[in-house]
Design goal:
alpha/beta; binds zinc ion
Length: about 160
């Protein structure tokens, strides 16, 4: 993790907060960078579109591929304020990004974000058919974790499903 990583994560945090930072609005931000250039910076838009797959990382991968006119993003780093879910981890693998850097991780947030889905996204990468993808967590971890419901938050069931 470098100062450069923290710089891009700060941008992802700004993107996440761009429509407010109430945890009920699922403020997730993602920035994709290559050679010091931003290819995409997106917030999750599941409710706005509406599109169940419109997570920040999915939106950013789509925009980045459009902007470079290529379905592969080799050499790029994907920054996400929260550990990517299974879908976004798989999308990162398919898009051929080189690195995934995330802020908060499972243990920093409410179980509804990860454990409830019964999937360990990091195991995904470990067992993926690509050995050229690195994934690193904990970049501006505390700042990122503040965006989400804490591990012990007392949430009604319907709110938990409202990701
Ligand atoms: Zn996701």
């Amino acid at each position: 993790m470098t100062q450069e990583d923290e710089r891009w994560m700060r941008m992802a945090l700004d993107v996440a907060r761009s429509k407010g930072s109430d945890p009920s609005t699922s403020p997730l931000g993602c920035v994709i960078v290559r050679d010091g250039q931003v290819l995409a910076a997106e917030r999750n838009q599941t409710h706005e579109l509406p599109d169940a797959t419109a997570h920040a990382e999915m939106m950013a991968i789509r925009r980045a591929c459009e902007s470079v006119g290529d379905l592969e993003l080799r050499g790029a780093t994907l920054y996400s304020t929260l550990q990517p879910c299974g879908m976004c981890t798989m999308a990162s693998i398919w898009s051929k990004v080189e690195r995934v850097v995330y802020g908060a991780e499972g243990a920093d947030v409410h179980p509804m974000y990860f454990e409830a889905h019964g999937i360990d996204t990091l195991a995904f990468v470990t067992h993926a058919y690509r050995d050229d993808l690195t994934i690193e967590g904990g970049c501006l971890r505390a700042e990122c974790a503040q965006l989400y419901y804490g591990p012990d938050a007392d949430l009604p069931k319907d709110e938990q499903a409202n990701l």
